[in-house]
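Deviations from the work plan: none for this task. Representative record:
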Amino acid sequence: MRFIVCIKQVPDTAEVRINPETNTLIRDGVPSIINPYDMHAIEAGLSLRDKVGGKVTVITMGPPQAEAALRDALSLGVDDAVLISDRAFAGSDTWATSFTLYKTISKLGYDVIICGKQAIDGDTAQVGPAVAEFLDIPHVAYVSAITHIDDTSITVHRMMDDGYDVVQSSIPVLLTVVKELNEPRLPSLRGKMNAKKAVITKLTREMIGADEKDVGLKGSPTMVKNIFAPSSKKDRRMLEGTPEEQVNALFEELRRLKCV
Amino acid sequence: MRIVIDATRCIGCGICLESCPYNAIELQDEKAVINDNCQLCKACLEVCPEGAIISESDTTDAKEDTDLQSYKGIWVFAEQRDGFVASVSYELLGEGRKLAKQLNTELSAVLFGSSESEAMELIRWGADKVYWCDDPIFKTFNDEPYKEQLVNLVRQYKPEIILCGATPIGRSFIPRVAARLRTGLTADCTALEIDKETGNLIQIRPAFGGNIMASILCPNHRPQMATVRPRVMKRGVYDANRSGEIIKIIPTGLSSRTKVLESQKEPSHCKVNLQEAEIIVSGGRGLGNAKGFEIIEELASLLGGSVGASRAAVDEGWIKYSHQVGQTGKTVCPKIYIACGISGAVQHLVGMSSSDIIIAINKNPDAPIFNVANYGIVGDLYEILPILIRKIKECR
Ligand SMILES: Cc1cc2nc3c(=O)[nH]c(=O)nc-3n(C[C@H](O)[C@H](O)[C@H](O)COP(=O)(O)OP(=O)(O)OC[C@H]3O[C@@H](n4cnc5c(N)ncnc54)[C@H](O)[C@@H]3O)c2cc1C
Ligand SMILES: Nc1ncnc2c1ncn2[C@@H]1O[C@H](COP(=O)(O)O)[C@@H](O)[C@H]1O
């Protein structure tokens, strides 16, 4: 079976902070990592391959430096890696990103495509389902378990607000996966050696046959108007005094709000 | 559009290098240069003290699509589970009403499956019209028929705005709808506004794990589509006498390549559902240990509220994930939110900052939680809470 895993290189948002005085991002050497959910997507691809046989290909659309993410994935044991990189892709929103991935994936061939639930820089969770739509294949989002797979169908658990659904889908299919699905493996020494030597396929806009008007900023229906720091409350009141006095003041407020 | 640096104005101070989340700016010969990593996020534009960073728009960006004018009205996708409309749909109707008023247009709801009486409820909560699509295929949720039917409706009736709950269902099938319609979709908006000049929808959402906010437009494509998390918007007023039109539609030609074999419901552990609670008392790492939640629970039950937690407290294993509030937990919007020993990281704030009244108790006077608090107490929660609990008990 042919497994395609879509991964994204993201700044480690845990370390991105905003400077309240200047309203700017403080990035000071924020490391780039593989989107954490995509680590679970890679693991899902590898363990399905180990079970039913086949090949796992990781792909990413991003700037040249995203190659590092692909090498990390290779060190975990994926079979090959594709970097889709072109200046024309800059400024892609989820529509243009999904379109670019779709063009690439339809060139590569596929049975099961696996994405992370969402990328932690944008948190949109839109790319996976949109890729499935372009490919005209079914998808299941928020997959927390894979209970059965054969040549033509797959059965998974889909997380819902109040529990989970057991969903069966025909193959080909696209899955987006959550952390509960598995525990990502660590790279092996041999994996690391192989990753260093591996040849990464590089594709440009022309090579995937995408029209200029459908990719990057031009292909993106949405545009960022501006960015700003989250606002803070204007009417805040600090309650002063001894703990007893502070609580008295708070208690009065709670009483005024009819809570006690 | 592209971001360019005016080399004559650049003084090589390097401030922009720090502002870029993608490492896309370098200094070459003491001038800033933008490299291939640029994602056009615009984070650098404001920081340049010399105004040397400029976003240049291509002429093609401004292309006028005359057809945009034919799209009218605001739609709310009313999600149902087991036949009942999810409460986020009523919240979206509340918000949709406000937008419809500003645009002087109609507000409609779209309901798949469920019943005519639920469709009526949508009218009482503010919809002028309900497109009620009745077909047994909607009994369980599958992406393909949902997508297909909504795409069909949009092509036929051409709404200018579609709002949908950012729930497991909405977040799963709505991206397919936007992909098919070749239009923009903004996820997890926390505020929506209408641009007075253009009438475009301004969609405000957190980015980078909530560390910054972005306003997003979809100027040249219709419909403009957005998802909103539950408990972010306020419900409108319920009017039992409100009348409106129910347009019943019998879909044809729907099919699905996925099938729900069974649905497992998990019994909820807390007495009061966190997202429905009017009062929430939350604990963070400042509690110091799992036992700390006992005092949080005591206060919560005295006030008739629920217990929330920061991710740090959940990660420590002091309390279940279902209590987590924030970016990766639940969004809550109670009347009163009491944060005890929580620093107020942005990822926590995005989940609770729209609460009506926020009370913060923290040892550290500089904790960011105080920036969003209506009432702040600098102090040890283990001193403050017992006094508060005693006083509440005394007055009973
Ligand atoms: C992608 C991403 C998603 C995230 N999602 C979430 C999320 O959904 N929800 C969430 O909460 N976090 C989330 N986080 C984590 C978030 O960044 C913070 O790490 C977390 O909120 C901190 O929790 P805390 O305030 O309890 O702990 P800390 O930051 O350690 O703060 C503890 C506070 O307690 C105070 N304190 C200590 N002792 C006492 C005492 N005796 N009395 C009073 N005060 C005391 C301290 O002064 C301090 O301010 C996320 C992070 C990332 C990167
Ligand atoms: N540029 C990209 N290249 C490859 N995969 C991506 C890219 N962006 C998003 N994805 C995939 O889509 C998922 C959801 O991303 P998002 O919609 O951005 O939250 C991610 O977890 C990845 O699996």
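The radius of gyration of chain B is 24 Å.
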